[in-house]
Design brief:
- It is a single chain.
- The chain is an alpha/beta fold.
- α7 crosses α8 and α7 runs antiparallel to α10.
- A five-stranded parallel β-sheet has the order 2-1-3-4-5, with helices on both faces.
- It folds into two domains: about 130 residues, Rossmann fold, CATH 3.40.50.10140; about 60 residues, no CATH class.
- It has ten helices and five strands; from the N terminus they run βαβαβααβαβααααα.
Length: about 210
C-alpha cells in the first residue's frame, strides 16, 4: 500500500517520531513508520524497503542517534537509490557523519532544535502541503553543465559505479553543476573514494576510455 510520508528515525528518538506522526496525520497526511505499521509476522526489512519504494517523501528525524544508526543509513541509501525526496528534520545541532554526508549534501534541511516543537511541526505541515499537492517529490533532474555532453556523464557514472554502486548517479548529478569542466568533475568525484589507489585508477579509467562525441 502506498503512503505519502515515510518517517525514518532512530529508536532513542521515538517520542519525537510518534509526536510528529500524530501531528502530520492530524493534518491529513498518510504516514508510515516502523514498527507501528509492520505486521507481527512480516519480514521487517522487506516491509521497510517496500514502504520506502511506495512513499512520496521521506522525513528523516536527524540527531546524534540517527547520525550513527546503520538502519537509518540503509533507509536513506534506499531512498536515494529510488530518487525519493528526503527532508532531514534536525532536532540536534550535529553535522552528518561521513556515511550520511554525501546522501544528504544536496537536501533542504529543517532545523527544530528548541522545545516545544509545535511551531516546527506546523512549518513541516505547510512544507508538505506544497510538496505533495501536485508537485513532484522525487529528486529533480540536476542542472547539466553546458560544458558536458550526456555520453561523457554516463561514462563517468559507469566508472564510478564500479566502486560505489548505484550511489554514483546521485554523486554525478550533485557534482556536475558545480564543476568547471570534465577534468574538474572527475577530480571532485575521485575525492569520494577512500584510497589514493582507487582515486588514481578511477581518474585513469575516466580519461583513457572517453566516449567519442
Amino acid at each position: 500500500m502506498a503512503h505519502e510520508v515515510f518517517i525514518s528515525y532512530s529508536q532513542p528518538d521515538r517520542d519525537c517520531a510518534f509526536e510528529m506522526v500524530a501531528r502530520l496525520e492530524g493534518a491529513g497526511f498518510d504516514c508510515w513508520m516502523a514498527p507501528r505499521d509492520i505486521a507481527p509476522s512480516a519480514d521487517w526489512a522487506a516491509e521497510i524497503m517496500d514502504a520506502i519504494s511506495s512513499a512520496r517523501i521521506m522525513i528523516l528525524i536527524f540527531s546524534s542517534h540517527s547520525n550513527h544508526s546503520p538502519q537509518v543509513r540503509r533507509e536513506v541509501e534506499r531512498a536515494v537509490h529510488k530518487e525519493l525526496s528526503i527532508l532531514p528534520f534536525r532536532i540536534e545541532d550535529v553535522l552528518p557523519s561521513k556515511s550520511l554526508e554525501f546522501f544528504l549534501s544536496t537536501q533542504h534541511w529543517m532545523d527544530a532544535f528548541s522545545s516545544p516543537r509545535e511551531p516546527y511541526y506546523a512549518r513541516l505541515c505547510a512544507h508538505l502541503k506544497t510538496q505533495l499537492n501536485g508537485q513532484p517529490t522525487s529528486a529533480p533532474p540536476a542542472h547539466v553543465n553546458p560544458h558536458f555532453e550526456p555520453p561523457e556523464l554516463q561514462h563517468i557514472e559507469r566508472q564510478l559505479a564500479g566502486y560505489i554502486g548505484p550511489l554514483a548517479r546521485h554523486l554525478v548529478r550533485a557534482a556536475a553543476p558545480h564543476a568547471a569542466g570534465i577534468d574538474d568533475l572527475i577530480g571532485r568525484l575521485a575525492r569520494e573514494l577512500d584510497s589514493e589507489s582507487e582515486q588514481r585508477e578511477f581518474r585513469q579509467r575516466c580519461q583513457s576510455v572517453r566516449p567519442r562525441l
